[in-house]
Amino acid sequence: MKKSTSLIAALLFAGATVASTAAMAADISHAPEALTLLDGTSDFGSSFSAGNNKNTFLDEFTFSFNGTSDFDGLVSSMSSNAHNGLDITSVALYGMNGLVSSFQQLETGKTDRWTLTKTGLAAGAYSVKVGGSAVSGKAGSFAGNLNVSAVPEPTTYGMMLGGLGLLGFMARRRKNAAA
Fold this sequence. Notes:
Elements: H1 2-23, E1 33-34, E2 41-48, E3 56-65, E4 69-78, E5 86-95, E6 98-102, E7 104-107, E8 111-121, E9 124-134, E10 140-150, H2 154-178
Parallel strand pairs: 1-3
Antiparallel strand pairs: 2-10, 3-9, 4-8, 4-10, 5-6, 5-9, 7-8
């Protein structure tokens, strides 16, 4: 009796394990995509076909730049209602040494919107990772935009101030010569 009870319990446990594995969400992530910054900006995004209810994704978009720069990013997804499309659960900026900063969620539900402004990023390679899941069997997509603008070096400010000083000196000299 004791052996049959143990055997039944083991079979139930094995069946539950198989059932829970089958119920786990599938990974529908796309391969990492390299972005090209044109005039310091780039658009990116992903689309997911119908039939992916509760499946998860973590899509990565890589880019690099030279010189210290400021970063602005926006990621959004819209659907007809909060029970269709995608649920974006995380958006973050990564550098060569790991997480730089997480985007701030501005809106969730029918529209998911995330944004980040980061100043003074060092030159190098970076990536934006967007994670979430499909909340219905319908198709869904998200889109993003990033802007990277160069921050002038301190020597640039010094040259500008020197030029303004020289212009002031010349204007004063002309004024004195005219008097």
